[in-house]
Amino acid sequence: MNSEVTINSAEYAAFHEAGHIFVAHIVGARVVEAELYRDVTRSWGRVRCERTEEQKPHITTGGFAAEYILYISNRIRKEDGSFPTEKEFIDLAANNASDDRLSFMGLPVGSDADIPKPIDEKFMNAAIFYARKHIDVVKLEALADALLAEEKLSEDRIKAILDS
Fold this sequence. Notes:
Blueprint: E1 5-6, H1 10-26, E2 30-37, E3 44-50, H2 56-60, H3 62-72, E4 76-77, H4 86-96, H5 98-104, H6 117-133, H7 137-150, E5 152-154, H8 155-163
Parallel strand pairs: 1-4
Antiparallel strand pairs: 2-3, 2-5
Helix pairs in contact: 1-3, 1-7, 3-4, 3-6
């Protein structure tokens, strides 16, 4: 991929899901599979893991972490081709990770609960920590590329990419 990524594109969704895969790998969870679902308005994906309750909040931050990496490397573009401002990025990424943020708090996905600002900041800070200190951008990119090309990655395929 190694190029600009448009918000809400399949590339953007693949990068987000690759972030979850990578953080799951970092914390020792078993990634069973990952899927990308393409949609005209907004692509999305899911990652299935076998993980402990202690690993879960870390894994939820992975998508935001990957989006943060795109943002700080000036690779995110809005649909009009312009760069998002910092506020636009935070609003977009927080909205994109709304289910992840709920899961981080231990709430059911799809809940309409308000996320307290201190918890939201903790979520974002944890994601940024992983983005800056632990995520190998080359392997993250390889995961996103494979997910984009294949739309479904098996555990063996994911391991092969991470072990390369």
